[in-house]
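Justification of resources, computational component.

The compute hours requested in this renewal are based largely on the per-chain cost of generating structure records like the one below. Each record pairs the submitted sequence with a full structure-token output. That output is archived, and it is also reused by downstream analysis tasks.
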Amino acid sequence: MASPTSWKIKYDRAVSDEFLAHFIEAGFASALVDYAKAPYPIDIQFRKEAKRPTNQWATLYVGLTAVLNVIDKGPNGLALTAHKTYQDPAKRLGWRDGWSAAAPADEWRKRWPEVERYLENIIAFTVNVGGKYVKTEGIVQAAVSGYVGDHLRAVIDREVAPSFRDTAIKQQFQKAASDPLVNAITKANLGFGKPPASFGMETDALAVDQEGRLIAIEIKPGSVSSLAWVPAQATMYARILQRWVDEDDDWREVITKSLKQRRKIGLSAPGFKAADLQPRVVPAVAFQRVAKDVYIDRMYQVQDALLAAGVGDPDLEFYAVAPSGRLDVRTRP
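The structure output for this chain reads:
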């Protein structure tokens, strides 16, 4: 295992067994997993800090918005946090000031009916406030993350952003991965808009497929013109995660534990079985079927330009997203 000061890039969101126990079976927060399984744009994900792995928490998302965090405070117990907007008494959402103080699990079990009333209010609030908080993208991301009927692949995380030892290393990695992609599509002069000046490093979803490969998925909702650039985005994200796989000897352990935890809380297909994990991150694009043909054609043109320039990934996969969140392989015409 790398020493705390030797690593450059790290990704690990698997939490401790003790913390996970609060979200399964008789755990006081197990209802949060039930919310994630309901027919709403709701998702739950586990998080922890790379530099301080004992700092761990679970986040409940409604669309793109984090509406509740359950934070592990170690021997002091657990605490809840939310954005200050949702704590505002004037909104009458039911938030209690005392929830931000650590308390033991037994105390939270007593308080949980009040927490659920808050969740009922906040879900209605975020869904109905003019679509400001629950955007189409959030709905599609939550559907893909929560779909458990897929035996071909299993999504293990959403909004995946590796941690870097320092800002200089992060900028170095980003430039090395982004610049060749930007240059290729700029020089191709495809004639349908100005390409992005750079690409970020947060992957919409990370999955494991039956072959044991990691799949970095960029998800696009509806029919949007930005669909054209997603082959470059997905390739960017896959390369960042590939650097993590190449440099972190513990990557298999991280993925294996994350997959086991998703299974344990019931958010992975029970019948999914992966072959031995492979040190390969494959980019993928997932778009809704309502996308216009003209945008889909542009997307393929961008992929062709990347391949022609020698910076694309020939294994990039295309998926159509069903309303349920199911990913169907899209065969290129």
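The chain has a mean pLDDT of 90. The two ends are 46 Å apart (CA to CA).
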